[in-house]
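Quick question, first post here. What does this chain look like in 3D?
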Amino acid sequence: MRMIDEGDNYQCRLAVPEDIASLANLRWRLCTDDAPVADPNVKKEFIEKCECTLSQMAGHKGIVHFIAETGGTVIAVLSIVKVTKMPSPNDINGQWGYLTNVYTLPEYRNKGIGTALLSEARDWAENEQLELLVVWPSDISYPFYERFGFSRQQREQDPLILIVSNGT
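> Answer (accepted):
Ran it through. Tokens below.
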């Protein structure tokens, strides 16, 4: 257990299927930027569909969710999508991770919980022998990732992006 500033205990761990409802709720809050719910039916429908999708993904080893919880309540999440690279003579089993879905409930922010989750995720990534973690942070979260050691890389093979759908 790690300590929150106020002395509350919290635990960081890999999510399990029983956490799916909490993951769906946190995903709603992340995607809506914690805006007040204008239409509860829209939220309810999203949560149900998200829970279904997350349940289908639960057995897939290509995505993991790390959570922080206190008193049985999930207060933060961080997800990693594992990407397997094509085999090469130099790296037959190459993999990297896409860090996404990073969210902490507003009342628990700036207490070291995101850093603790990211530490857990980094340790997991090292154990999984991932080459790197990639994140596309929001403008406001750049300093958080930079404090943790993320940096802009000027690699000769920086990715080019082709947007094929607007995400709807």
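The first strand starts at residue 2 and ends at 3.
The mean pLDDT is 89.
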